[in-house]
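Page 42, continued from yesterday. The earlier attempt failed because a stray header line got pasted into the input along with the sequence. Redoing it now with the clean sequence only.
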Amino acid sequence: MTQVTYDVTHTPANDDEVEVRAMAASATPPPMVRAHERFLTRGEIGGGVRDVVAQSWRRSARIGVDPDHPAPPVDISAVDLRSLRRDHPLAIAVPLVRSIVLEPDAGWIAALVDAEGRLLWIDGNRTVRAAVERVGFVEGALWREDVAGTNAPGTALATGRPVQVLGAEHWSRPVQSLNCAAAPVHGPDGSVLGVLDITGGAAVGSGMARSLVRSAVAAVEAVLVGSAGRRRGTVGAPDVVAPPEGPDGPPQLQVLGGRGLLRTGDGSPAALTGRHAEILLLLAEHRGGLGAEELAVHLSGDELSTVAVRAEVSRLRRIAGDVVSQSRPYRVRDGVRTDVDVVRSALRVGDLPRALASYPGPVLPRSDAPGVVRVREDLESEMRAAVHASRDPGVITRWVASESGAEDWWAWDRLARVADPRSTAALRAAERLASVAAPAGQTSRNR
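This time it went through. Structure tokens are written below.
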């Protein structure tokens, strides 16, 4: 149970995630409490309720889950639970999840859930664990939507997507003091093996918690691929392949660290205007295509007309050729790859050094287009989460030396913890922690 969204195979940032960020400031925002009550008493979905939550509420109501007395069953014996845990494919991921997600002073718990919604392993903060046990969040219990209503692991299984559930978005009133974030874990064949969830208080309502879940799931999936490869006698995790260049390579869009650049199949670079770079990036992020109205919203909220969008796309086609389809909705042709994709691919297989080497800076840093801002914030959040989970002082040092990481208190704190106390890196981290503002409620144990 937790309230966050993190994707393994990366789902582009969407309006749902933006709403989550806005709501995360409060575990149970009063408007959401009222919205929950309105739905229970009148069956009405008011404004401000995210679609993923509204759909889950409807499913919970149809099934008849009691919002006041949920009864997540523990219908398995201790012996059978031990056997299930021993034989489950996710068993090999337990140590990794502990190392990535559960710092000694983390204010949350982590749970690994199987594909049936049964809680197999729970670990973490003892205070939080005691609190969730009171609502039946215990090892062996089933927390599918059909028995527990809207909750992060159950809804992640129901939708097949990462989910964040904040406070009163939970169907069950006894659970509404909690925030949860969960994401499905896929096996090497693409099947859903289960869900990784973190649950806690205000800290779990943050974008960082969402990123942490996604990074951890990516690492777990890489381990599962490696394990399957060893059983077959092949190499474990797949290599991260850099985008091909030269006359036979597909067009490549570069948007990291500066202005946009399109490298076409013959290898020649074409500088892009800010608007054209934004359009190409947004189309690359939405492979199913975007209509003129949708593109206008992603580019400028309600301030850009569809006529202006069509004119920009027409001009872009003269530069980009067949990279942009002639049909509608607008889309980029298959094979177009961005440098954002390269970074995500590296993060997905746990290759943080490669991700850092491929990340010269934020996505189109001068752009204030809403859709671009979401991509920029999500990618940087994923990078931060991966760095914060790293135990490699060299990797963390590289991050804090960048513009994005220079003021990252968590990264400096992590460096101080994992570096040799006598090293230059540790001394520099201690000095930096004395000058970088700590997040509210946090103090470094290295000060």
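Notes: Residues 1-27, 234-249 have pLDDT under 50 and may be disordered.
Reminder to self: strip header lines before submitting.
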